[in-house]
Design goal:
The complex is a heterodimer. Chain A has seven helices and four strands, in the order H-H-H-H-E-H-H-E-E-E-H. Chain A is α+β, with helices and mostly antiparallel strands. In chain A, a hairpin with a 2-residue loop joins strand 3 and strand 4. Classes of the chains: A alpha+beta, B alpha/beta.
Chain lengths: ~160, ~500
């Protein structure tokens, strides 16, 4: 569990670093997520006060975007592209394989907290589809065998 | 020894970093003095990772490189198993007209000296000697239209902003390239970031704007990193800052990162996101050109539109306009993707037919099966059957066939594609990504999925409902997300009726 004093002090530093920036809320939320791995609820009122917004407005922005997490993800995040170019090369089959291998559906985390599986709509790797993003590492031409070796490597 | 090896995301996704590592290790073991330049991609994705070795006769290409191919690069190059010959002589490279992408893959993306040596900043130098109205006229005369998909004349947009009176104006680059099958923006930003910076600086001069933003989607980590570094270099070298190129008015830039919302590629939604709000679409008017970022006059242009500006200023509007077809002037970076043998980026004048692009350049499917459909213009574009392969690539030509060219991405599907499934996916995607502001999109997309499921179960009475729903979405949505989702749905239904009827028979 995150220490609320720690959250308050780090969020305060992040807010100071973004002073004077036009439309700073997204960069602030990105910085907080980079720091904690998710956006702790305790951060929202602090951001709201600093930017002169209501807590509801900050929550509204955070919840609008797919990237921001309310809760920590698993130790590893596996994102598989579900978009058209990847589908034309068998992304649906690969995704079904991943779900079976991990025993989870989209947006879920394995019970041991090891892997979170998420869909992504296009990584711009459409000429070497299907594609994946494994903890920030791009992978092209993902098939079932490659996926097994990726999942096996996530300890 | 000098080797070029792309830092481009596609090359990295296919193992370029591992190849670079192996090259360094091997050179060290052999005592070879090796320099690796991490360049942009030449666009031949099926050959990535593509290594190029500098030789007295030119750059020799080797690809697709596997780790096992690394040692032989230090031996007799002509005998290398992956030797392709000189890069410039490859048919894919020779047949193109690279104006916007002239430097991508050629230069070191983060070397301003290399950029200058290849014609960079000449356009900006010329613009600095011109009056604002002449700069705008140059863009208008080039015939450049918005490459993001809408095809609105760029010069007219600039004119509106240039003539607007305000204490602050902005240039916003839309780099939220979320359409499947498109990666031209990404490749340009990764391979030649200074071109985009130069284009934005010219836009700033022409419109009297002093601040620019590039809004890049978070799914593009490499592009974000390269652009951030490039802006810092451009600032340090005096290209950007209080005086553009040390003599002009002020113009500076900031890189902003999106957060996974497809709808933010729509310009008004993007502006809201940039302002730190929910990425909800704004009703127009007011036009962003008059009331855009923070309510101030704002140019919102796509990456490729802005990146085409430097060459227009360097070589003149007439040079650019001479390429093309009808009202589609200049060149277009085609992105050939999906189930295709030779996928990648191919810049050429407008006017090739869809069949030439898919069969000749793309070489048909990767699976070797017959081509069934090509989706042109991303997830909001129509599916084209073989019967329409004679359609020439141009804005009006595709509109005339109930389609669109969008950002010029093409996804090829072989005969195993299930078009009812693809139509359903279009509706599902719209439902997931809808910003929720307008009813036809927010509710229509959900109803669309349900209706297509009914059709899938063989309920033919759902057909008129689907058609009616698509008409409502098309006419009543605020932006292209809800408004264009009917394109893939209706084109699948119109051109591939068998996929819809087979499902019915199966259910009966």
């Amino acid at each position: 569990m995150l220490d609320s004093v720690e959250v308050t002090s780090r969020v305060g530093e992040i807010l100071t670093a973004h002073k004077g920036m036009e439309g700073s809320l997204l960069p602030i939320l990105h910085a907080i997520q980079a720091e904690f791995g998710h956006v702790p609820q305790a951060a929202l009122p602090i951001i709201a006060q600093d930017l002169n917004l209501s807590k509801a407005e900050v929550h509204g922005v955070m919840s609008f975007y797919h990237d921001f997490r309310e809760n920590p993800a698993g130790k590893h995040v596996l994102k598989l592209c579900r978009a058209e170019a990847c589908k034309s090369m068998g992304a649906d089959r690969v995704a079904a394989h991943a779900q079976k291998a991990l025993g989870i559906e989209w947006h879920e985390t394995t019970t041991d907290g090891r892997v979170t599986l998420e869909p992504v709509f296009c990584l711009g790797l459409c000429a070497c589809a299907p594609s994946a993003l494994v903890d920030g590492k791009l992978v092209g031409r993902v098939d079932e065998a490659k996926l097994d070796s990726i999942i096996g490597g996530l300890k | 020894m000098k080797i070029y090896l792309p830092l481009d995301s596609a090359a990295v996704a296919l193992g370029a970093d591992e190849i670079a590592h192996a090259l360094h290790a091997h050179a060290k073991a052999k005592g070879v003095d090796l320099t690796i330049i991490r360049n942009g991609s030449r666009g031949m994705v099926w050959l990535e990772p593509l290594a190029e070795v500098e030789t007295p006769t030119g750059r020799m290409a080797f690809g697709p490189m596997a780790l096992a191919d690394v040692p032989a690069l230090f031996g007799d190059l002509a005998a290398h198993p992956k030797a392709l010959g000189l890069t410039d002589d490859l048919p894919w490279m020779k047949a193109q007209t690279r104006l916007t992408f002239a430097r991508v893959g050629v230069i070191d993306p983060l070397s301003l000296a290399d950029y200058r040596a290849h014609g960079g900043l000449k356009g900006l130098e010329r613009a600095l000697g011109m009056a604002q109205a002449d700069m705008v006229a140059e863009v208008t005369n080039s015939g450049l239209r918005g490459r993001g998909g809408a095809g609105f004349p760029t010069g007219i947009k600039w004119k509106t902003v240039s003539e607007a009176k305000a204490d602050r104006k902005y240039i916003v680059c839309n780099a939220d390239e979320g359409d499947s099958a498109t990666f031209a923006d990404r490749m340009l930003m990764e391979g030649d970031p200074f071109t985009l910076i130069e284009g934005m600086a010219i836009a700033g001069l022409a419109c009297g704007a002093t601040k620019g933003f590039v809004y890049i989607r978070s799914e593009y980590p490499v592009a974000i990193e390269v652009m951030q570094k490039a802006v810092e270099i451009a600032r340090a070298e005096g290209v950007l800052g209080a005086k553009v190129m040390g003599k002009g008015p002020a113009f500076d830039m900031e890189i902003r990162v999106g957060a996974g919302a497809y709808v933010c590629g729509e310009e008004t939604s993007l502006l809201n996101s940039l302002e730190g709000k929910r990425g909800v679409v704004r009703a127009k008017p007011p036009l962003p050109a008059l009331q855009g970022f923070m309510g101030k006059p704002t140019v919102v242009n796509n990456v490729i539109s802005l990146a085409s500006v430097p060459v227009i200023f360097e070589k003149g509007a007439a040079h650019y306009k001479d390429f093309g077809l009808g009202r589609s002037r200049g060149t277009i970076p085609l992105q050939i993707a999906g189930n295709v043998k030779y996928g990648g980026l191919y810049e050429i004048a407008f006017g090739l037919t869809l069949g030439e692009i898919v069969d000749k350049i793309g070489g048909g499917t990767a699976s070797g099966r017959p081509v069934k459909a090509v989706q042109v213009g991303g997830p909001l574009g129509a599916y084209f059957p073989r019967a329409l392969f004679d359609t020439p690539f141009g804005y009006e030509e595709f509109a005339g066939k109930d389609g669109l060219i969008g950002h010029a991405g093409l996804t090829v599907f072989d005969d195993t594609a299930d078009m009812l499934g693809m139509a359903r996916f279009a509706m599902e995607f719209c439902a997931i990504e809808s910003c929720g502001k307008c009813t036809p999109c927010r509710i229509g997309a959900v109803r669309g999925v349900e209706t297509l499921d009914r059709l899938g179960r063989g309920d033919a009475s759902a057909l008129p409902i689907l058609t009616d729903l698509c008409n409502t979405m098309k006419a009543g949505s605020l932006c292209a997300l809800g408004g264009f989702t009917p394109y893939p749905v209706m084109s699948a239904l119109t051109h591939f009726p068998d996929d819809f009827s087979t499902q019915k028979e199966a259910a009966e």
